[in-house]
Amino acid sequence: xxxxxxxxxxxxxxxxxxxxxxxxxxxxxxxxxxxxxxxxxxxxxxxxxxxxxxxxxxxxxxxxxxxxxxxxxxxxxxxxxxxxxxxxxxxxxxxxxxxxxxxxxxxxxxxxxxxxxxxxxxxxxxxxxxxxxxxxxxxxxxxxxx
Length: 146
Ligand SMILES: [Zn+2]
Hints:
60% helix, binds zinc ion
């Protein structure tokens, strides 16, 4: 999925989480969910985050360990020692990325290093990707207004 689609969906998950009382609204939580939603693409040298940290993409395969549950589980465990809620926010952001990428033909290997891959048919950058982005932008506007 496109970078902007991941951001729009992460904002949607954030709004949903704080509107339902799962998390409290804070600037730190909002920033954390946005950052955690783009971390997985650090393994892609041509992605927004991968271009900022190209060393990671040079050594790791795209849609490998960074697109699995292994890293968020470790990160959430560490973050939760400071704040359980921030750990939850990180988990929500990271897994929102994995959920969207699981809809693409490349899919994700959630249980890395197992080869099993969850995948779909929505191509990154396709019309459907762009429509999903605008759908979540619209839902976010409605969600903020409610
Ligand atoms: Zn990705």
